[in-house]
Every structure is written in C-alpha cells, then in structure tokens.
Amino acid sequence: MVYRSSKKYDVIIIGAGIGGLTCGALLAKNGFKTLVIEQHSIPGGYCTSFKRNGFVFDAAMHFSEGLGEGGRFYQILKELEVEREIELHKIDPLYRVFFGDESFSVSADLNEYISILSKKFPKEGKGISELFETIKRLKKETEKLPTPLRIWNKIFVPLKFPLIFKYYKKTFAEMMADYIEGVRLKAIICAGWPYVGLPPSKISAIQMAGYLYSAHFEGHYYPKGGTQVLVSTLAKALKKYGGELQLSTKVTKVLVENNKAVGVETAKGNKINAKYVVSNADARQTFLKLIEPGKLNCKFLNCLNQMEPSISFFQVWLGVDMNLRDKGVTESEIFCYPSYDLDYVYDSCIQGKFESGCGIAIPTSSDPGLAPENKHIVSLIYPIPYDYKERWRTENGKRGGSYRKLKDEIKRQLIKTAERVIPKLSEHIILSEAATPLTLERYTQNSKGAAYGWASIPDQSGTSRLQPETPIKNLYLAGHWTTSGGGTITVAISGKNTAEMIIKVHSKSSP
Questions:
Q1: Distance from C-alpha of 24 to C-alpha of 244, rounded to nearest angstrom
Q2: pLDDT tens-digit profile of 355-364?
Q3: How far apart are CA 207 and CA 172, in angstroms?
Q4: What are φ and ψ of residue 92, in 5° steps?
Q5: Which of 312, 414, 435, 310 is nearest to 58 (CA)?
Q6: Closest alpha carbon to 417 in 306, 314, 492
Q7: What is the DSSP string of 177-205?
Q8: What are the tens digits of pLDDT across the range 265-304?
Q9: Listed residue (7, 76, 157) closest to 492, CA to CA
Q10: Fewer CB near the last or first residue (10 Å), C or N of the chain?
Q11: Per CATH, is 8-88+225-307+455-509 categorized as 3.50.50.60?
C-alpha cells in the first residue's frame, strides 16, 4: 500500500525540541525539503519560556553550555549562520553550592577553579589537575568515536580509545577515585549532579565527564530574553533555509512499508510522505505507539521495555519584589545541600524529603529584563520520581483536589528550604507557579516526565543507549533518548550527528 499526501518531503522530524530543530535546520541548509512537526503550540520542548504578569519564566533549561565563541553549540549556530542573532550572558560563577553552613563558589575560569581547589585541598592538587586533564582527553576521544559504532570499530576501541575503554562501564565515583581522595572535595567537584540527574556513585563516568567538560571548558551561557530565544534562533534558521515548522500537530503514526519509514500520519488523519523520518520525541512513544505492532522484533522491544527513564523534577517559579543582592545573593545558580554526602542528598530526593535541600535558579541575575523593574525571578528545582505518592495522588489518572493539595504543600516546603539561602523569601512572593513530573509529561510527552531521557547509568550510556539508527530503515532518532544523553548542548550535538548521518546515507543512495 502506498501512502499519498499533497506534499512530499525529504525529511519529516517529529518534535521541535533543540535536537529536532538543530537536525532540521542543518538538513534544510543542505538542500533537504524538511518539515518539523510539534505537538505543542510553541517549539522547544524543555527549552521553552512562558510569561506571567511581566515575568518571563524558563520552563526547565537554565542555561546552555558551549554557546560562547568557539564552543560546540556556537559552532552549530555558526554553521547555520545565525550565531550573531542571539545575545548571551556568560554565567560566572557557574554556581554556588551550600553544604550545610559552608558554601563554595565554582568559578567559570577553569584555571582559577583548579587553583582555588588546590589551595583549599593542598594534598590533592596534582590529582585535581590530572582529573580535569583526563576529562579533556576523554572528551576528545568521544568526539572521534564513530557514529554509529559498528562491530569492527569495537575491536579497535581499546587501542584507539583507551580512556573510553577504561571508564565506559564505570561510574564517575569510580573514575574520580583514581585521582581524588577527600569526600568534601569529591562533593564540590560533583555538586552539579542534578544537571545530569544522578549522583557520582550512580552516574556513568562518560556522562558526568561530558557535563564537566562542557561546564568547565566551554562555560554556561544564558540567552538574553530567556531560553525561548535560543529555540527561536534555531527555528529561524530552519525557515531561513526553506524548512517548515508545523505546531499544534500531533503525530500518531510513523508510516512503515517493507520495514522502511515512508512518512507520518497526524491526529487529524493527514498522511505526509517523506524519504526519511527523524523522531526527536519520547523513545517509548516512538516505538510502542507510533509504530504499528509487528513492525519491530521482540528482542528490541524487550530491551526497550527494560530501560530505565531518568528522574524527573518538581519545579517552582516565583516572581519576587525583593533586592536579592541586598541579601547577599548574586549567583544565577545555587545548590542547597544538607551535607557533603551526595548519596544522602539523592536518596532524600527519591524519598521526597523536601526540607533537605533544593536547586535555586535566579535568571534575573544574568538578565534583569526577564522581570518588571526592581523584581526578580527565583526558580526552585527538586529532582523527584514520577511515581511519588501514588503518582502524585491523582484520582484515576485525573488531577483532583488531592493532587493540588500535595502540589501546594511541596511548593511551600521548598520555599521554606530556599529561605536558608534567601532569608524571608516567602514574604516577598507576588507570583508563583509550580509543576510536577506529570506537568512535564503533559507538555513534552516525555515518558514519566523524564528530564534526561534514559537514566545515565553506565549500562545505559554511550553505545548502550539507543543509537541514531533504528531497526526501521530510514527512521532515525535525535534528542536525549539517544547516544549523547540529556542536556542542551548534547541534544544539539545529537541533532547535528543525525543530520550528518542522513546526508551521508542520502549521498550514497543518490544516482
């Protein structure tokens, strides 16, 4: 059976997150007739913004790495010729972390950071330098690793990629033990673990090293006007090269003939043909809902069902009428932990001990224009499971009074916790919003509100993660469910890699 539509595309991309837009824009620039389809009314996925009474709140992203000149994200924007169309604020320090009554500021300058750490822990100076040098070398190896990794490539991994071979099945705690001894120092280095969703004892060494490289070698940057500006820049690049973006349109099926993707069908019954289909959407929905039963083998589906999604978040957005600098709060990002024991911190999150700590983002420290004059934005972030309290006390899947009551209770608890860092915060709130993992799932369609795709444990990282190629010919993946994992820069790189893969395949098949 042949599916027909009024228009035929070279590529259809499902999902207008960073990965999908990057992939689409690069393909369009290379002459592919490209359509990006997004179920939400705005593009961006987790990288969106929303407005309330003059405040511009970021949905989930607080910054991106690699946007500075020479950075990997910058290079993508430069390739798309839009690198000058976005104004950036460099975040320095990267963040401040509180461990009980002690605090530590993490400088954006790597040499200064290493120097400060070495003075604070003089016996560890050599190990600190060696750790960051290893992170740099490890990143260079991962960039040279072929995508996809074929069987014959794997034979040469121990020789060509010795650090990857050494650490790809290890946690970052195991990797760090080769260089660092002190518990306090380890906690400071890994204080940003919520950016990857797992503490060092659980996170893949490759994944955590990748974040630390991005942060310390490329830096954190905030787009002036909010994170939606970054999305808008990519969307503009897509349209600049003739690509199309279709919003408020839900894809309900990937059309497959003879084990080859040939297009998509939307909720309105429109069937749209394409030579290639890229899913930047949730992996489980892609394979379990968008593809008809019987099109995929049982072994692949069993592996998919056994994979573990990442943790989600509870988030609070506050508009406040206080001068934070008068309170001594000058940083854009803050972590508030009860102790140096990061495993205890993570376990507290899993159990919902909201009094233990939280993450605090203050984007108006970088960009005051996000709020009315003399006002600030304070966002509170707390990693938490999707199934907390019997799926957030929903009633037969519906959000009723019990759900709203629990949501309000947690919001109040997190505000109280944040007052350890921002005294009397609760007295200055003029606007508040909150979201549970169910909210994240509803707006992005990510299974269980997963913040980073699959959990980045060693068994689910790198080549153990879903690859851009799929068992269905001409169906590809991009985004945080694939090899690169979660994070703004990683999904952008994922989109770039997938685009390059399609360009290569297409050039070989063209007469």
A1: 9
A2: 889 999 999 9
A3: 8
A4: -150, 120
A5: 435
A6: 314
A7: TTT---HHHHHHHTTTGGGTTS-TTTSBH
A8: 999 999 999 999 999 999 999 999 999 998 998 899 999 9
A9: 76
A10: C
A11: yes
